[in-house]
Amino acid sequence: RKEVEQDPGPFNVPEGATVAFNCTYSNSASQSFFWHRQDCRKEPKLLMSVYSSGNEDGRFTAQLNRASQYISLLIRDSKLSDSATYLCVVNNNAGNMLTFGGGTRLMVKP
Amino acid sequence: SQTIHQWPATLVQPVGSPLSLECTVEGTSNPNLYWYRQAAGRGLQLLFYSVGIGQISSEVPQNLSASRPQDRQFILSSKKLLLSDSGFYLCAWSVMGVRPLPYGYTFGSGTRLTVV
Protein backbone atom coordinates (compact mmCIF):
# COMPACT_ATOMS: atom_id res chain seq x y z
CA ARG A 1 0.00 0.00 0.00
CA LYS A 2 1.33 3.44 -0.92
CA GLU A 3 1.99 5.84 1.95
CA VAL A 4 -0.26 8.48 0.43
CA GLU A 5 -2.84 7.63 -2.21
CA GLN A 6 -4.93 9.89 -4.40
CA ASP A 7 -7.22 9.36 -7.33
CA PRO A 8 -5.21 10.81 -10.24
CA GLY A 9 -8.36 12.00 -12.04
CA PRO A 10 -8.80 14.05 -14.10
CA PHE A 11 -11.90 15.51 -12.54
CA ASN A 12 -13.67 17.49 -15.25
CA VAL A 13 -16.22 19.86 -13.75
CA PRO A 14 -18.15 22.90 -15.02
CA GLU A 15 -17.58 26.35 -13.60
CA GLY A 16 -19.54 26.86 -10.42
CA ALA A 17 -19.58 23.20 -9.46
CA THR A 18 -18.53 21.79 -6.12
CA VAL A 19 -15.83 19.15 -6.26
CA ALA A 20 -14.21 17.04 -3.55
CA PHE A 21 -10.98 15.08 -3.47
CA ASN A 22 -10.02 12.43 -0.98
CA CYS A 23 -6.60 11.19 0.01
CA THR A 24 -5.73 8.22 2.20
CA TYR A 25 -2.54 7.77 4.20
CA SER A 26 -1.03 4.66 5.74
CA ASN A 27 0.91 5.95 8.76
CA SER A 28 -1.42 6.32 11.73
CA ALA A 29 1.25 8.31 13.58
CA SER A 30 1.26 11.13 11.00
CA GLN A 31 0.73 14.55 12.53
CA SER A 32 1.00 17.12 9.74
CA PHE A 33 -1.26 17.29 6.71
CA PHE A 34 -1.35 19.70 3.82
CA TRP A 35 -2.80 20.30 0.41
CA HIS A 36 -0.44 21.73 -2.19
CA ARG A 37 -1.47 23.02 -5.58
CA GLN A 38 0.70 22.53 -8.66
CA ASP A 39 0.04 24.35 -11.91
CA CYS A 40 1.28 22.88 -15.16
CA ARG A 41 5.07 23.12 -15.42
CA LYS A 42 5.32 25.00 -12.13
CA GLU A 43 6.46 24.18 -8.63
CA PRO A 44 3.97 22.95 -5.98
CA LYS A 45 2.72 25.66 -3.64
CA LEU A 46 1.04 25.32 -0.29
CA LEU A 47 -2.72 25.67 -0.62
CA MET A 48 -3.67 25.01 2.96
CA SER A 49 -2.75 23.08 6.06
CA VAL A 50 -5.26 20.57 7.38
CA TYR A 51 -6.17 20.79 11.04
CA SER A 52 -7.84 18.16 13.18
CA SER A 53 -10.99 20.23 13.56
CA GLY A 54 -11.21 20.94 9.85
CA ASN A 55 -10.56 24.35 8.36
CA GLU A 56 -11.89 26.61 5.69
CA ASP A 57 -10.25 29.23 3.52
CA GLY A 58 -12.71 30.98 1.26
CA ARG A 59 -14.09 28.44 -1.18
CA PHE A 60 -11.77 25.71 0.08
CA THR A 61 -12.51 23.38 2.99
CA ALA A 62 -10.12 20.75 4.29
CA GLN A 63 -11.08 17.93 6.61
CA LEU A 64 -9.10 15.27 8.45
CA ASN A 65 -10.48 11.91 9.54
CA ARG A 66 -7.87 10.25 11.73
CA ALA A 67 -9.94 7.15 12.42
CA SER A 68 -10.22 6.32 8.73
CA GLN A 69 -6.88 7.94 7.86
CA TYR A 70 -8.06 10.19 5.10
CA ILE A 71 -7.98 13.86 4.23
CA SER A 72 -10.40 15.66 1.99
CA LEU A 73 -10.44 18.91 0.06
CA LEU A 74 -13.71 20.50 -0.99
CA ILE A 75 -13.79 23.30 -3.55
CA ARG A 76 -17.03 25.24 -3.87
CA ASP A 77 -18.05 27.44 -6.79
CA SER A 78 -15.19 26.20 -8.98
CA LYS A 79 -13.37 28.77 -11.09
CA LEU A 80 -11.45 28.23 -14.31
CA SER A 81 -8.35 29.27 -12.38
CA ASP A 82 -8.80 26.32 -10.01
CA SER A 83 -7.63 24.01 -12.80
CA ALA A 84 -4.45 22.43 -11.47
CA THR A 85 -3.11 19.30 -9.81
CA TYR A 86 -3.80 19.03 -6.09
CA LEU A 87 -1.22 17.19 -4.03
CA CYS A 88 -2.03 15.59 -0.71
CA VAL A 89 0.94 15.80 1.66
CA VAL A 90 1.50 13.93 4.92
CA ASN A 91 4.43 13.78 7.29
CA ASN A 92 5.82 10.36 8.03
CA ASN A 93 7.09 9.16 11.36
CA ALA A 94 10.53 10.78 10.87
CA GLY A 95 9.67 14.30 11.97
CA ASN A 96 9.95 16.79 9.16
CA MET A 97 9.88 14.38 6.23
CA LEU A 98 6.81 14.81 4.10
CA THR A 99 5.36 12.31 1.68
CA PHE A 100 3.52 13.56 -1.38
CA GLY A 101 0.63 11.84 -3.05
CA GLY A 102 0.68 11.48 -6.81
CA GLY A 103 -1.81 14.32 -7.18
CA THR A 104 -5.36 14.72 -8.42
CA ARG A 105 -5.85 16.69 -11.59
CA LEU A 106 -8.77 19.08 -11.74
CA MET A 107 -10.00 20.66 -14.95
CA VAL A 108 -12.71 23.30 -14.65
CA LYS A 109 -14.54 23.91 -17.92
CA PRO A 110 -16.49 27.03 -18.95
CA SER B 1 10.94 36.77 4.74
CA GLN B 2 12.37 33.53 3.47
CA THR B 3 13.08 32.99 -0.21
CA ILE B 4 14.45 30.08 -2.17
CA HIS B 5 16.33 30.46 -5.43
CA GLN B 6 16.99 27.74 -7.93
CA TRP B 7 18.81 27.93 -11.24
CA PRO B 8 18.95 27.52 -14.12
CA ALA B 9 15.26 27.43 -15.07
CA THR B 10 15.80 25.25 -18.12
CA LEU B 11 18.72 23.16 -19.28
CA VAL B 12 19.37 20.98 -22.30
CA GLN B 13 22.36 18.71 -21.89
CA PRO B 14 23.82 15.89 -24.02
CA VAL B 15 24.02 12.36 -22.68
CA GLY B 16 27.26 11.81 -20.79
CA SER B 17 27.76 15.47 -19.88
CA PRO B 18 28.07 16.65 -16.26
CA LEU B 19 25.34 18.44 -14.32
CA SER B 20 25.30 21.01 -11.56
CA LEU B 21 22.09 22.55 -10.24
CA GLU B 22 22.22 25.04 -7.44
CA CYS B 23 19.70 26.03 -4.80
CA THR B 24 20.04 28.71 -2.14
CA VAL B 25 17.76 29.76 0.67
CA GLU B 26 17.67 33.23 2.22
CA GLY B 27 16.11 34.57 5.37
CA THR B 28 16.44 31.48 7.55
CA SER B 29 19.10 29.42 9.28
CA ASN B 30 19.59 25.66 9.55
CA PRO B 31 16.88 24.73 7.09
CA ASN B 32 16.14 21.19 6.05
CA LEU B 33 16.85 21.01 2.32
CA TYR B 34 15.48 18.62 -0.28
CA TRP B 35 15.94 17.71 -3.93
CA TYR B 36 12.98 16.21 -5.78
CA ARG B 37 12.52 15.07 -9.34
CA GLN B 38 9.25 14.97 -11.22
CA ALA B 39 9.10 13.07 -14.49
CA ALA B 40 6.55 14.25 -17.05
CA GLY B 41 3.02 13.50 -15.81
CA ARG B 42 4.32 11.80 -12.68
CA GLY B 43 4.50 12.47 -8.96
CA LEU B 44 7.35 13.89 -6.90
CA GLN B 45 10.28 11.61 -6.20
CA LEU B 46 12.53 12.52 -3.27
CA LEU B 47 16.17 12.25 -4.33
CA PHE B 48 18.18 13.72 -1.43
CA TYR B 49 17.63 15.56 1.80
CA SER B 50 19.96 17.34 4.18
CA VAL B 51 19.59 18.33 7.82
CA GLY B 52 22.91 20.19 8.01
CA ILE B 53 26.17 21.15 6.32
CA GLY B 54 27.81 18.09 4.83
CA GLN B 55 24.92 15.83 5.89
CA ILE B 56 23.25 14.21 2.88
CA SER B 57 20.79 11.34 2.81
CA SER B 58 20.04 9.60 -0.45
CA GLU B 59 16.62 8.15 -1.06
CA VAL B 60 17.09 6.62 -4.49
CA PRO B 61 20.33 5.04 -5.76
CA GLN B 62 21.28 6.56 -9.11
CA ASN B 63 24.03 8.47 -10.86
CA LEU B 64 23.17 11.73 -9.10
CA SER B 65 24.81 13.16 -5.99
CA ALA B 66 24.14 16.10 -3.71
CA SER B 67 26.28 18.34 -1.56
CA ARG B 68 25.66 21.03 1.04
CA PRO B 69 28.82 23.11 1.25
CA GLN B 70 27.12 25.93 3.17
CA ASP B 71 24.15 26.11 5.50
CA ARG B 72 21.79 27.53 2.90
CA GLN B 73 23.25 26.07 -0.28
CA PHE B 74 22.29 22.74 -1.80
CA ILE B 75 23.80 21.41 -5.01
CA LEU B 76 22.68 18.52 -7.20
CA SER B 77 25.33 17.02 -9.46
CA SER B 78 26.02 14.28 -11.91
CA LYS B 79 29.26 13.26 -13.58
CA LYS B 80 27.54 11.71 -16.60
CA LEU B 81 23.91 12.31 -17.46
CA LEU B 82 21.62 9.60 -18.76
CA LEU B 83 18.52 10.05 -20.92
CA SER B 84 16.45 8.90 -17.94
CA ASP B 85 17.70 11.88 -15.90
CA SER B 86 15.39 14.18 -17.83
CA GLY B 87 12.74 15.73 -15.66
CA PHE B 88 11.70 18.66 -13.52
CA TYR B 89 14.08 19.10 -10.59
CA LEU B 90 12.78 20.90 -7.55
CA CYS B 91 14.64 22.13 -4.50
CA ALA B 92 12.67 22.69 -1.29
CA TRP B 93 13.26 23.78 2.27
CA SER B 94 11.49 23.41 5.59
CA VAL B 95 12.10 24.56 9.14
CA MET B 96 14.09 22.26 11.33
CA GLY B 97 13.10 20.94 14.71
CA VAL B 98 9.45 21.98 14.73
CA ARG B 99 6.91 19.18 15.17
CA PRO B 100 4.40 19.06 13.72
CA LEU B 101 5.39 21.27 10.81
CA PRO B 102 3.43 24.53 10.76
CA TYR B 103 3.39 24.44 6.98
CA GLY B 104 4.59 22.23 4.18
CA TYR B 105 7.72 22.58 2.17
CA THR B 106 8.52 25.71 0.19
CA PHE B 107 9.74 24.88 -3.29
CA GLY B 108 12.03 26.69 -5.65
CA SER B 109 10.77 27.41 -9.14
CA GLY B 110 12.44 24.30 -10.51
CA THR B 111 14.85 23.37 -13.28
CA ARG B 112 13.49 21.63 -16.34
CA LEU B 113 16.27 19.33 -17.56
CA THR B 114 16.20 17.66 -20.95
CA VAL B 115 18.94 15.17 -21.69
CA VAL B 116 19.41 14.65 -25.43
Question: Care to describe what's here?
Answer:
The complex is a heterodimer of chains A (110) and B (116). In chain A, the strands form two sheets. In chain A, strands 2, 4, 5, 9, 10 and 11 form a six-stranded mixed beta sheet that branches. A five-stranded antiparallel beta sheet of chain A has the order 1-3-8-7-6, with no helix packed on it. Chain A is globular and about 40 Å long. Chain A is built from no helices and eleven strands. The termini of chain A are far apart. Chain A has strands at 4-6, 11-14, 19-25, 33-38, 45-49, 55-57, 60-65, 70-75, 84-91, 98-100, 104-109. Helices cover 0% and strands 52% of the residues of chain A. Chain A is mainly beta. By secondary structure, chain B is an all-beta fold. Chain B is 0% helix and 56% strand. Chain B contains no helices and eleven strands. Chain B has strands spanning 3-7, 10-13, 19-26, 32-38, 44-52, 55-58, 64-70, 73-78, 87-94, 106-107, 111-115. In chain B, the strands form two sheets. In chain B, strands 2, 4, 5, 6, 9, 10 and 11 form a seven-stranded mixed beta sheet that branches. The radius of gyration of chain B is 14 Å and the shape is globular. Classes of the chains: A mainly beta (110), B mainly beta (116). Chain A binds chain B through residues 31-32, 34, 36, 41-46, 49, 87, 89, 91, 95-98, 100-103, and chain B through 32, 42-44, 49, 88, 90, 94-110, 112.
Please specify the SSE layout and strand pairing.
The complex is a heterodimer of chains A (110) and B (116).
Chain A: E1 4-6, E2 11-14, E3 19-25, E4 33-38, E5 45-49, E6 55-57, E7 60-65, E8 70-75, E9 84-91, E10 98-100, E11 104-109
Chain B: E1 3-7, E2 10-13, E3 19-26, E4 32-38, E5 44-52, E6 55-58, E7 64-70, E8 73-78, E9 87-94, E10 106-107, E11 111-115
Parallel strand pairs in B: 2-11
Antiparallel strand pairs in B: 1-3, 3-8, 4-5, 4-9, 5-6, 7-8, 9-10, 9-11
